[in-house]
Amino acid sequence: MMVGGQSYQTVGRGRPWTFYALAALFGLFLLFLYGPMLVIYILSFQGPDGGVTFPMVGTSLVWFEDILKPGQMANIPVSFGRSIALASIVSLLTVAISVAAGLAFRRRFPGSGVVFYLAVASLVMPSLLVGFGIGLGFRALDTKPSLFTSALGAQLTWTLPFGLFAMFAVVNRFNRAYEEAANDLGATAWQRLRHVTLPILLPGIIGVAMGAFTLSYDEYARTTLVIGERNTLPLEIYALISSATSPTLFAIGTITTGVSFLVIGLTLWRILRLQRRRAGAMPS
User: How many domains, the chain?
Assistant: First the structure.
């Protein structure tokens, strides 16, 4: 094939060889990314006499049942509930602060750049140091670390920067002509926000909520030094790994990953429904 006087070698249906090379590279990337996860999923259904390696010795659900048995070294169901509760609160706070910041930063104000960089500065700091600093701060205040105080603050330092980045991108694409039209129709500031601005931003808001939830749900490094006496699920899993190894760990990994995929799937489904409803409401 000649392009601009130069010859390019093509393979099958006129596609350049670079297409197939990049496709193969992407396939290797997916294999590297999801291969270990696939192995965990398969081995979680290992038979009662099986171990943590291949070959499979039958199949069963015994390792999933083992998670719920009383007297386990790690209390997985209780810690799972704590992680869900903490992630839900973190998600709500991240959405509220990110939406407020996104709307506020539509207008420049003195020190806006400094405020923005201070808000996202925690991303460039090692996670353990962030948790360590929060723990020292609570000790200096003679306050006992706990799940919904110090751990909540530590996780917000992780989820808020991502929420701000996402919401700023959404708000920057927002057409303010809709708000001007609402003003012309006599809407108050609250009515404009509730019936115009937030519904248009809703797909982005749902995305921020989903991202914050999954980041909090899986967070370990920033939480480990400020959690207090009640562990979240990642900390319980780490304690279990350091003390014993069995296919129960793989069963836990399968369930927790399934929860993450469920949250992502429900979020994408909700966003798709909103987009279809919005497209159907547009005049033809």
Answer: 2
Residues 105 and 41 placed together within one structural domain of the fold: no
Range of the domain at 137: 72-281
Distance of CA 96 to the CA centre of its chain: 16
CATH of residue 192's domain is 1.10.3720.10
Most confident by average pLDDT, 61-70, 113-122, 166-175? 166-175
Torsion of CA 14, 16, 19, 25, to 10 degrees: 140
Closest C-alpha to 216, from 164, 130, 271, 154: 154
Asked whether residue 275 is domain-assigned, the answer is yes
What is the rounded distance in angstroms from the CA atom of residue 195 to the CA atom of residue 199? Answer: 6
Tokens of 106: 């539509």
User: What span, in angstroms and rounded, lies between the C-alpha atoms of 133 and 222?
Assistant: 10
What was the pLDDT predicted at 12?
Answer: 47
